[in-house]
Design a protein that fits this description.
It contains seven helices and five strands. By secondary structure, the protein is α+β, with helices and mostly antiparallel strands. A hairpin with a 5-residue loop joins strand 2 and strand 3. The protein starts with a strand and ends in a 5-residue tail after the last helix.
């Protein structure tokens, strides 16, 4: 743990830990003693990232008995983010090497990132897609696609929109390559907006339109 995080401030009732590689942090503050049990103390844990999918900080009450577990959970979360970051860099490298993999119908700004509201909308669609893939993994070979969807969801806050669209296009193409039955089973109504957002090429559009999945 020492190689990953360090204590940057400790005043007794305020402890701040930081990730040594980035701006992630954990603040333990605002201790409150229980009136009925002096050994029972509640702290506020303010963590960034707040979850595996969201970078924004959030505060959560923790009982003194589970403080250590709260710290361990945060460290594990950082490790998962680090693993996702390595995968993100790999995806960007692969996409840069295959920049013409699927042609765009309009030019996007290379470094434009999604707003928090846009991230939530895309994440909701990807959650539907992930759920649908999970439900159909007994019928179709979609394990690798599920992993790509999870990685993309974890990277929405850090990837440029251009790369998000390119990865999304590749995911949809892999589903289309599984055949029409797979497409009909996996692509559900709530994903239509996301699919249109991707600016798919004409070949994939024709397949989805033929199955009435874009109308």
């Amino acid at each position: 743990m020492k190689e990953l995080v360090k204590i940057v401030k400790n005043t007794g009732d305020y402890i701040e830990l930081k990730d040594v590689n980035r701006n992630f942090y954990l603040i333990i503050s605002d201790p409150k003693q229980s009136a009925s049990n002096v050994k029972n103390v509640t702290f506020i844990f303010t963590t960034m990232p707040s979850s595996d999918l969201h970078l924004a900080a959030s505060g959560t009450p923790y009982n003194s008995e589970v403080v250590l577990k709260g710290i361990e959970d945060w460290v594990k979360r950082i490790k998962r983010f680090n693993a996702a970051e390595k995968q993100r860099q790999k995806l960007i490298q692969e996409q840069n090497e295959e920049d013409t993999y699927i042609p765009f119908e309009e030019v996007e700004e290379d470094d434009k990132h999604l707003s928090p509201e846009e991230q939530q909308k895309i994440d909701a669609s990807l959650q539907l897609l992930q759920n649908s893939l999970e439900e159909n993994k007994a019928k179709y070979a979609v394990e690798n696609i599920i992993e790509e969807v999870i990685t993309l969801r974890q990277s929405l806050a850090t990837l440029p929109e251009r790369v998000i669209k390119q990865i999304g296009q590749k995911i949809i193409k892999k589903i289309v390559d599984l055949g029409q039955d797979a497409v009909k089973d996996i692509i559900v109504d709530g994903m239509k907006g996301f699919i249109k957002y991707l600016f798919l090429n004409e070949a994939i559009k024709q397949v989805l339109n033929h199955l009435h999945l874009l109308s």
